[in-house]
Write a structure and sequence with these properties.
Blueprint lengths: L1 E6 L19 H8 L5 E7 L36 E5 L22 H8 L3 E7 L4 H11 L3 E10 L4 H10 L3 E3 L4
Parallel strand pairs: 1-2, 1-4, 2-3, 4-5, 5-6
The structure holds pyrazine-2-carboxylic acid and zinc ion.
Pyrazine-2-carboxylic acid binds next to loops.
């Protein structure tokens, strides 16, 4: 079953946000076209307590729980999401991947959710190509999922090309807007 996973399409990663990613807005129309094409859409949120260990080093304060910055882009309709998963909620642990945190512990429960339903064909879109998408894709491949990255539905903080090449080398399929 094909599942679209929207990673961290949150105000703080978009322009005007604390960690605004260059070109972040450009993915919104692409994502809006993708959503109705998938039988299942899941979304994640970087969801930090106010004292998260990444604040100040290496990141500015961002995606603080229950603030505007942590909210989804207003262009997204959250009623379209079958489920929403939160990561980075432990003040002492970073979690770029939606599967495992930096200590190797389950980050969100998404793996169990997918396994229970036998959904194995994952399509990634969102922010950021070189952090959340990157580490989630590598973990998904290790977990045995079929993984596709929708390139033009993602944007990077740093080097997108390098991140994409690495994900491809590890077994991810790269596509552009499928439509
Ligand atoms: C992320 C920077 C800081 C991400 C999270 O999930 O891509 N990037 N926190
Ligand atoms: Zn974060």
């Amino acid at each position: 079953m094909k599942v679209l996973i929207l990673t961290d399409v949150q105000n703080d990663f978009l322009s005007g946000g604390a960690l605004g990613v260059k070109g972040g807005e450009e993915i919104l129309p692409v994502i809006l076209r993708l959503i109705p094409r998938f039988p299942h859409v899941l979304a994640t949120q970087d969801w930090h307590p106010h004292n998260h260990c990444s604040f100040g080093n290496p990141w500015p304060i961002h995606c603080v729980q229950d603030t505007w910055g942590a909210d989804f882009s207003p262009k997204l309709d959250r009623t379209k999401f079958a489920a929403i998963f939160h990561k980075g909620s432990d003040p002492n642990v970073e979690s770029y991947s939606i599967f495992f945190d930096a200590k190797g512990q389950p980050a969100t429960g998404i793996h169990e959710y997918l396994q229970t339903r036998k959904w194995r064909d994952l399509y990634f879109a969102g922010l950021t190509t070189d952090y959340c998408v990157f580490y989630s894709v590598l973990d998904a491949l290790k977990l045995g999922y079929r993984v596709t990255v929708i390139q033009d539905a993602c944007r990077a903080i740093g080097d997108a090309k390098k991140a994409l090449a690495h994900m491809k080398e590890k077994g991810a399929q790269l596509v552009r807007n499928l439509l």
